[in-house]
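Dock alpha-D-glucopyranuronic acid; give full complex structure.
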Amino acid sequence: MKKIALVSIFIFTSAIGGCREKENQPQVILKLGHALDIAHPVHKAMVFMTEKVAEKSRGRMKVEIYPSEQLGTEKESIEALQLGYMAMTKTSSAPLEGFISKMKIFGIPYLFRDSEHFWKVLKGPIGKEILLAGEKQGLRGLCFYDAGARSFYSKKEINIPSNLKGFKVRVQNSIMSIKMVEAMGGSATPIPFGELYTSLDQGVVDAAENNPPSFFTSRHYEVCKYYSLDEHCMLPDILVISTRVWNRLTPEFQRILQEAVDESVEYQRQIWAEAELSDLKSVEEAGVKIIHPDKQPFRDCVKKVWDEFADTEIGALIKEIQEVQ
Ligand code: GCU
């Protein structure tokens, strides 16, 4: 954990404990750490959220964003939230699986029919239940952000799953991602996002997988010249607040924060759609070959992941999600 993360509790505690009532002077400062670059559409949406918080609270509440793993990796940040050292984090659903079992659902490959189905589920009762599933673990989900679909990129072409044989594929800190890559024949290697550029460059891993804005803004395309759009998973990004911190906010500040977050979701969905297209174009212009493989052989390989969860809580959730029309 980087030093700066520890500072957040000091400011937060003193701010919450104080009884300064002046407008335009923060009474509460919430530190938010995440892994993405500032050019990423999810970061931009969170900046929008901080502006809304400042506006709605007339400067009495402030959210400070620390991008690019400055406060630690996604796993470290989740742990810091549990302890109340950091107020908020934005993480992929994948590392949350280790803390909240229900999050594994997003790691079921090819679960959602399309983006419309994905949002119908996330905005409905199932999504709400998943956001609050970590309250006992000290983690309260505030919203989902669109993180599109993830696809493989590599130094060599991937057209069919057997191309992954003998490949070390970087995955997130997630048991579901490991299962998926292994089902497709690759050898899964968990590495934090911030270390991935060097790992690809130095050949520690041969491939990775992500959505177009993350592939572009991380500059991984400088090393990986093949992007194979198999779109195996739709893992949402999730904004999470420490339950300890949330419970210490006044009802007014809780309302302001949630409203600002909800407005940022609408904004993010708009800019996401544009970013996906333009970032794909940008990597292509930078010399990346975009491959559109037949998805069926990839689907066939991961059927065993579905089967493994058939008689579990995740299996029941799969059925519920499939029934959402
Ligand atoms: C996505 C996601 C990040 C995550 C990254 C990863 O870009 O938005 O939160 O860190 O994937 O692969 O690690």
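Observed: The pocket of alpha-D-glucopyranuronic acid is lined by residues 35-36, 42, 74, 91-92, 147, 172, 193, 210, 214, 237 (CB under 6 Å).
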